[in-house]
Amino acid sequence: MKFLISVLISLVGLFNNYSFSQSCCSGSSSCPIAGGASQGVLAEKQVEVNTNYQYIFSDNFLNGDTADANFLDLYKSQYNYLRLAYGVTEKLTLSLESGYYFNKTQVGLNKRDTISSSGIGDLILFPRYNVYHHQGSNGNFDATIGLGLKIPIGDYNDSLKQVEPFSGTTYYLRKPPAIQPSSGSQDFIFYAMIFKGFTKAKFRIFSNFIFIKKGWNPLGEKAGNYSSAGLFFSKSVLKNLGVIMEVKGEHTNKLKLNNDLFLMGFYNYDVNATGGNKLFIVPQINYSYKSLSLFANGEFPLYQNLNGTQIASKYLFTVGLSYKFFPFKKKIAIGTYYCPMHPHETSLTTGKCSICGMDYILMK
Fold first, then answer.
1. CB-count exposure of residue 47 (10 Å: 0-12, 13-18, 19+)
2. pLDDT tens column, 143-167
3. Handedness of CA 249, 250, 251, 254 (dihedral sign)
4. Whole-angstrom Cα distance, residue 22 to residue 307?
5. Could you give the residue ranges of the DSSP H alpha helices within the chain?
6. From CA 277, how far away is CA 196, in angstroms rounded?
7. Mean pLDDT across the chain, nearest whole number?
8. Whole-model pTM above 0.85?
9. If 0-12 CB within 10 Å is exposed, 13-18 middle and 19+ buried, where does residue 289 land?
């Protein structure tokens, strides 16, 4: 009897230490696509290799939009994201994407505990299709849609080893969902992007929309559905240098539990302290040289209103590298190619105009 009471006391103490941890991607976006989610399509038979390093840090904790200093000391993570994409046709691009967490760490209030994990996250299959393209004398207009599938391959049930102090019995408690490399659920990603480029002004404006329908994991958890909308303004300031400014809004629904499985499990967070609304500003700088592009951005919250006490966003920094190339020789149609902006600029092969950089088109 004394043994049972001591175990219960230990469990209650641990529950208090871990309670109210926000699920899924606390302190950051709930979108699994990292490193500039605005993706169009590649040219036919073109390959893209894209890698991103993402650092998240937050010592900002909110209840609604009010600071709560009695929660944790800090939350941080380091994440590497890899995307491999291939242009199946000039309109259809297929990408395979995944990520690895070097660490996900939360430090308890007054450093009473530190909980960490690492490992691979999820696998994402993400085909995108260009539904409309128009090339005019003043620029181009594009509309692209995508439908992705997120397949969980990482750990969603990582546990802490605990030893009951009186009997020496070993037992395991699940780490908070914010620390798990994966949510353990299969999700569907719906995506759309609209792009408008102005060639003479070297200016671009575009927007993207993402909706992620979350599934259930084997523990009976369903992370809240996620939706976001971003508006981007892009300007070329030098020959190879561009700047982008994004304004992004996010909405995440509350997490749900399967009541039957809930009776069998041990949940170390408050289900009602999940989900909320956020507004961000995201500046980005890009540098390109031939087929290689480097970029860096920072994500800074302008407004957050969260359900219950949660880890709120504070700093998110991303640096990335993209390389595009043609692994196979491309067949070139015989004829004369010209620039629609500068018709006197012609070539016998495809390429770009030396004056404005626009793609040559085949003279009919």
1. middle
2. 999 999 999 999 998 888 877 778 7
3. negative
4. 10
5. 2-18, 259-262
6. 28
7. 83
8. no
9. exposed
